[in-house]
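User: Study the shape:
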Amino acid sequence: MSDIETLKAAVKKLNAQATQLKIDLHDLSEDLPIGWEKIPEVAEKTFAAYQQLTETRKLLAAAGG
């Protein structure tokens, strides 16, 4: 598997994870005030996922993908 294919697969996987975390954060907000104590944890995971996704997309673009 080429570097570009590997990066494309990573972007696809990270995008799915980030999207699920975004949904989790949205669902958490809809249930407020129930579960409010989970907000920092879910928000931190969501932030980290989108940060990693952005960096991987940059690597893919730099690789010509």
Q: What stands out?
A: The chain has a mean pLDDT of 96. The radius of gyration is 15 Å.
